[in-house]
Each structure stands twice: as structure tokens, then as C-alpha cells.
């Protein structure tokens, strides 16, 4: 197993850097997400306990919650940089020999000027299969691009949902009404933040 020692808040801890262990960690996290142990942006205490227990059971390696949380944060940071690097560009291929995005030197030079933290991806990217796992872990909880918003940002811009299709299909109207009522019952607005875009 490959680990490296990093210093976190003055404490030296071993970090998971082995690809196989990282894949196992991601699979366990995804299972806990699907079980509902990450109801928002963070795992519950029980979720972390299950992640630590299952990780040790599957690998024979014991890591603290802090160590696993550090790995989670490092993966999230890498995923954000990767998504930012690729942006909205379509038609980018995957080069299995270089193990990164198959794009021209001009594309790389222009993108790396914008996304400085993505330099390492020029020689080793995130392969599509692993990217799908990271998407399951972080999509929806990490703000990326022009749709990023947080309660501290105040009122949502009126164009925030501009590209959302709000059409209700006639044959599903009754079901849509039931779902709307269910969603309204689940919505909690905190800190008096207005989210209707009407200022």
C-alpha cells in the first residue's frame, strides 16, 4: 500500500494515495450516500462510522475519520479542478496512452491559463470511469460554474433557472401536483433567505 505522511493542523497523519484504496473508499462513500447517510453536503456521524468500519473491513487498513475526511476533501478539490478544466467544452476525447483529455496544445494552453490548479491533469487526468464515481460523490453538493450559489450570496438572480424546462406534461399533471406538495413539505428556508428571484 502506498501512503504518504502529511501534516494536518500540526499533526502528522498518513494519507491514502493508493489507487486501489481510493477506489474502495469511493465505493464505500457512494454506498453510504445511497443509504441516505449524507443528507446534505456532509456525512452524518453514523455515515462516517460506517465508512471507517467498512473501509477497515474491506482493506485491513484502519484510518481515522479525520484521515478519511482529508481524502474526501482532496478528491473533491481534484474533481472541482477537473470539471473546471473541462468546462462546457464538448467533443473532448480521452487519450488512453497519455491518460488524460485528448485536446490540442492550444486548448491546453488556453484552459491552463484559466485553471492554474489543473496543470497536473495535462500529464495524468481523471479517467472517465473514476470521474463517474466522483460525480456520484460530489455532483449536487459542490458549486461549479455560473450556477454556483450559497445562502450568503443573498437572493437568487432571476435568470438562475432560465435554462430549466418547467413545462408540465398533461398526462402527468396529477402526479406532478402530488410531487410539488411533497417537495413543498420538505423545503426549509433558513436565515430568511429569499429564493424566488423577485428581489
From TrEMBL:
- The organism is Gossypium hirsutum
Protein name (record): L10-interacting MYB domain-containing protein-like
What InterPro entries does the record point to? Myb/SANT-like_dom
User: Which domain of life does the protein's organism represent?
Assistant: Eukaryota
UniProt cross-references to Pfam families, sorted A to Z: Myb_DNA-bind_3
- The residue ranges of the Myb/SANT-like domain are 21-109
Amino acid at each position: 500500500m502506498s501512503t504518504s505522511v502529511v501534516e494536518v493542523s500540526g499533526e502528522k497523519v498518513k494519507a491514502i494515495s493508493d489507487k486501489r484504496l481510493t477506489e474502495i473508499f469511493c465505493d464505500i462513500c457512494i454506498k453510504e450516500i445511497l443509504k441516505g447517510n449524507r443528507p446534505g453536503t456532509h456525512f452524518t456521524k453514523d455515515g462516517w462510522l460506517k465508512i471507517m468500519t467498512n473501509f477497515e473491513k474491506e482493506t485491513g487498513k484502519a484510518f481515522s475519520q479525520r484521515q478519511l475526511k482529508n481524502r474526501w476533501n482532496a478528491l473533491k478539490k481534484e474533481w472541482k479542478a477537473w470539471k473546471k478544466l473541462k468546462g462546457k467544452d464538448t467533443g473532448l476525447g480521452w487519450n488512453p496512452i497519455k491518460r488524460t483529455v485528448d485536446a490540442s496544445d492550444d486548448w491546453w494552453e488556453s484552459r491552463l491559463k484559466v485553471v492554474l490548479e489543473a496543470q497536473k491533469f495535462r500529464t495524468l487526468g481523471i479517467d472517465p470511469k473514476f470521474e463517474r464515481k466522483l460525480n456520484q460523490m460530489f455532483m449536487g453538493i459542490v458549486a461549479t460554474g455560473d450556477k454556483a450559489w450559497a445562502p450568503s450570496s443573498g437572493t437568487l438572480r432571476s435568470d438562475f433557472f432560465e435554462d430549466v424546462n418547467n413545462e408540465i406534461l398533461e398526462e402527468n399533471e396529477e402526479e406532478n401536483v402530488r410531487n410539488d406538495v411533497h417537495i413543498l413539505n420538505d423545503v426549509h428556508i433558513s436565515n430568511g433567505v429569499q429564493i424566488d428571484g423577485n428581489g
